[in-house]
């Protein structure tokens, strides 16, 4: 059921009592993974409703993000969208076990892939491909499902919780996905891609360090990574937007491959970052409650602008 336990620094095994609460949580996820998805959907509504009331700080972040991106909505509609997001998040949490432990046959049955034909043609022609995968709530299970189709690599940021980190890494790589540390040089990923492995790249986090530009996202100047453009240029790769979404009322998930970005990279980092944000914004508008609004997307502000978060 669980990955092999190995010693950490100072011979501190992951079986140490301080890790027991984490193992209990992992065991619960494993048990939930055995349930039908409609049951997880219904349970997720309850989990999300509890989180909505029990984590007011995160609820505030979601509300600020939605107020910023959807000023045209009434206050009532915004709060309704916040609640829907928590419900979808609750289901996504309970579905993690499916991503990490479900058999390939079940994953293929629960997660549909649409629009894959052009991608298959690109790979068959020897083209290098970068999947631009925004932070939608179905990303974990969608990413594992895609890894069933062949080789791939993804950047990996370790979790602070050592138990969850070990289990997550094991679950994500069980069908051959290669994980590359997020601090690895660009040349490491480029080398892997040149060997034929598509890259899964998540571009839409707050860019508070280097390689960033302030470009519009929902009409707001937003700190945005320019790394995607650099990857595409160095690897001579085609960028394919990829979205992973929950289907209504526990009917499973779908992974949607969009047409490749045109004239990308353009040679202009600002123009490319803006084009990337426009593509993500379009996807968010189609299913706004399923975007990961709990992230402080607008944390880093342009010089002289105040924080949006209270």
Describe this structure in words.
This protein has 310 residues and is an alpha/beta fold. The strands form 2 sheets. A 7-stranded mixed beta sheet has the order 1-9-8-2-5-3-4, sandwiched between helices. A two-stranded antiparallel ribbon has the order 6-7. The protein has helices spanning 20-32, 37-54, 56-69, 75-101, 104-110, 117-124, 139-147, 162-173, 186-194, 227-235, 269-286; strands at 111-114, 128-132, 153-156, 178-181, 199-201, 212-217, 220-225, 237-246, 253-257. The protein has one domain (9-290). The termini are far apart. The radius of gyration is 20 Å and the shape is globular. It contains 11 helices and 9 strands.
Approximately how much helix is present in the residues? 40-55%
Tally of strands: 9
Percent in strands: 15-25%
Largest sheet: 7 strands, mixed
Number of domains: 1
